[in-house]
Amino acid sequence: MAGEMIVDPLPRGFFPEIRFSLRTATRSAELHLPPAVQAAALAAALGACCALAYLAVDRIGHDRLVAEREMAVVRAERANVDLQDDLAGLRDKLAETTRDLGQAQQRQAALSAESGLLRGELQTTDTRLNVLDEAHSRLSQQKGEVQQLMTSSHDQRELYQLQAQRATLAARLSKVESDYLEEQDRVAQYKTDLDGLAKKLQQLSADRDNAAKERDRMRARVGELEQKLSMREAPERVAEAKPANAPPAAAPAAAAPESSSRAAVGGAAGIGHRGLDQVERVLAAAGVDVERLFSQFGVNRATGGPFVALAKAGPADELSGIRGLIQSLPLSAPLADYQIESGFGPRHDPFNERNAFHTGIDLSAPYMSPVYATAPGIVTYAGYRPDYGKVVEIDHGHGISTVYAHLHRYTVADGEQVSAHTQIGFLGSTGRSSGPHVHYEVKVHGEPQDPEKFLELAHLIPVAQR
């Protein structure tokens, strides 16, 4: 077989005439590529390059916008922290000023009481002076007798003493009145400072509220951008995950009941004794009464006992018991996509940097992501708590319950029956939280357990069991 390419040496257009000639011992063939086909191929290649370049530029711009939004959120949070520090300092200064005002008012009251006493004494002294003046006036008219002169001399001395006492009391009264006026001025200044601090405190509170609103708005915007980015990248991930040359699977027209039963039993067998042993160990370590729980779902873990015919206890019964057991446990995650930010156990508190015990795990995801129940149960509480923010608690029975905290909003009510993977709220940052995430707890008889142990059990369970 021989091949030959022939190019027209004198092309009539921009593209030359190209011919491929294939010859064998018995046959020959010729392939012709006209200029129109060549131009179409070149245009398609240029269009693909332009599309790729546009997508790359759009992706870079979107990433840059998301980064700018995140930096704006960080700046808003820093400004909020600074405003809170200023607010705390103003509150301390306000308390100190209020204390000084109380002390000044007490001193003012004491000076006012002392001034009243001095005014009473001064009035009494003036009354006695008036009496003595009248007596002196009468005695000065009677100059004939010596006894009257002696009495006049005695009254004159008493008069001088009373005048001196009156002068002293007047000086003391003047001093008290001066101090009283100074205290009045000081109290007025304290009141002015107090009003100024109250206005500044009100302004800082308004600035803090505005900063918090701006922070929430920026977080919501970042969440929207991340959701748009994830929606845009979803088709690309699906295309990458699909094999390039995978043949399409032929779906059977109708599956027989026996084949479905065998497939289900095969799924249950996929757990194996090792998987059940692992489930048993994790539940026992968490404080669950494993024997009682297994017996309630008909999962027999004992190795002895009487002989039971296969017709009475076959693989399908064992599968049903295992399915019931698995579906009652919180083995799934409360978020579709997440990242573990803080694990269960001792850690440094993010607010005061002191050692503390973390009773759950923190799962981060885009703001307003749906939050799901990890197992069927009854909602025992849906409301607000200071540390947890908006929180939902679900009782799954057998002493097992779960907690979902820092929600932006919850969509269930107390006493509501929910099934596994029912949406119970939206991810947020309410309560004692430093950013959007879900604080997830698993409790057994009221004691917190490590939720990651239950999430790890999900890897031992085939998809057919969920």
Can you give me a brief rundown of this structure?
This protein has 466 residues and is an alpha+beta fold.
The first-level CATH class of one domain is given as: Mainly Alpha
Separation of termini? 60 Å
In CATH, the architecture of one domain is Orthogonal Bundle
What is the average per-residue confidence, as pLDDT, rounded to a whole number? 76
Shape: elongated
Low-confidence stretches: 240-270, 302-313, 462-466
Detailed description of the structure:
Helix content is 55%, strand content 18%. By secondary structure, it is α+β, with helices and mostly antiparallel strands. A hairpin with a 3-residue loop joins strand 9 and strand 10 (389-397). Among the domains are: 2-33, no CATH class; 77-218, Helix Hairpins (Orthogonal Bundle), CATH 1.10.287.1490; 339-465, Glucose Permease (Domain IIA) (Distorted Sandwich), CATH 2.70.70. The longest helix has 106 residues, at 35-140. The radius of gyration is 46 Å and the shape is elongated. Strands 4, 7, 8, 9, 10, 11, 12, 13, 14 and 15 form a 10-stranded antiparallel β-sheet that branches. Strands 1-2-3 form a 3-stranded antiparallel β-sheet. The model is unreliable at 240-270, 302-313 and 462-466 (pLDDT under 50). The relative contact order is 0.07. It contains 7 helices and 15 strands. The two termini are 60 Å apart. The protein has helices spanning 35-140, 146-241, 257-269, 272-285, 290-296, 315-327, 451-457, and strands at residues 2-7, 18-23, 28-33, 339-342, 345-348, 355-358, 361-364, 370-372, 377-385, 389-397, 400-410, 417-418, 423-427, 438-444, 447-449.
